[in-house]
Amino acid sequence: MFLLLSILCSSLINVVFKYFPKYQVDNQQAIMVNYWTCVIVGLLTSNNSVHSLSTNFQSSWGVYTMILGILFITVFISMAVTAQKMGISVSVIAAKMGVVFPVVFAFVALNDPINALLIFGILLSIISVFFVSNKSHIGLTGKSYLLLPLFVLVGSGIIDTSLKVIELQLEGVSASAPTILIFFFAAILGTVYTVFRLLRKQTDFVLKNVIAGIVLGIPNYFSIYFLFLALQSNLFKTSQVYPINNIGIVVASTLFSILIFKESLSKRNWTGIALAVVAIILISIGG
């Protein structure tokens, strides 16, 4: 249930982003407000206080939340630039390929059992992302942009792996505590950048960006919170959670696009969805 809720919330994030161009929302401002919304939602829906969070930050896993907060916003901005310069498919594929990092971590550090069925399911899940992602024009404007997909891939992999590292060290602490701290540090960095842009008169602070950020922040908070709970569950191993989560988001987002935005899919896309379903079954059985 927690894994399904995380997939649903992550997919809703993609739906919200679809509306941004229509209402001419400033992505960066909305993302900054979104992170503060995550912090507020976390405080309102949990027993955490500013004092308890300060104490938690001094624990063994506290520093990871700061690193993740920085990575959250930098990787996201890099994904946006990658989509602009090299195509949406390149951005999506780079982000989802990062699943290799936590899976390898699970096999090497956590001693998750390896078998042919599980490995084949994971490989099939990666292939399905290539099929489901819509083809788009790739326009390279400079060699420096070739590093962006690599940063997105590595950054996404580090984020997913770090979430597991944090979960292993919680020791009775609510999953809401690290979730709030991660978004707090992302919010701080986002605020600094927003103020910088405002001072340089590169943007104006508009109410619709605040509203968009609030709408985005609610599912964003719960996408990470439920992922933590899924990792704490004994139903799936780490090597299963991340591949299922990744392809689940891709497939659910695609289905939302069909139902809400009336987008049409090619045979290639439907093949990807079919492969994703098979991959989920194989990963589930293989674990």
Descriptive account of the structure:
With 287 residues, this protein is mainly alpha-helical. The protein has one domain. The protein is 77% helix and 0% strand. The chain contains twelve helices and no strands. It has helices at 2-19, 27-44, 50-57, 62-86, 88-97, 100-108, 116-132, 147-169, 176-199, 207-232, 238-261, 267-286. Helix 5 (88-97) runs parallel beside helix 8. The longest helix is centred in the C-terminal third of the chain and has 26 residues, at 207-232. The model has no long low-confidence stretch (mean pLDDT 86).
Q: Number of DSSP strands?
A: 0
- Percent range for β-strand residues: under 5%
Low-confidence stretches: none
Q: What is the rounded Rg?
A: 19 Å
Distance between the termini: 18 Å
- The number of helical elements comes to 12
Biggest pleated sheet? none
Q: What is the percent of helical residues?
A: over 70%
Q: What is the number of independent domains?
A: 1
Structural class: mainly alpha
What's the mean pLDDT score? 86
String of helices and strands: HHHHHHHHHHHH
Shape: globular
What descriptors fit this protein?
single chain, 287 residues, mainly alpha, 77% helix
SSE layout:
Elements: H1 2-19, H2 27-44, H3 50-57, H4 62-86, H5 88-97, H6 100-108, H7 116-132, H8 147-169, H9 176-199, H10 207-232, H11 238-261, H12 267-286
Summarize the structure.
This protein is an all-alpha fold and 287 residues long. It has helices at residues 2-19, 27-44, 50-57, 62-86, 88-97, 100-108, 116-132, 147-169, 176-199, 207-232, 238-261, 267-286.
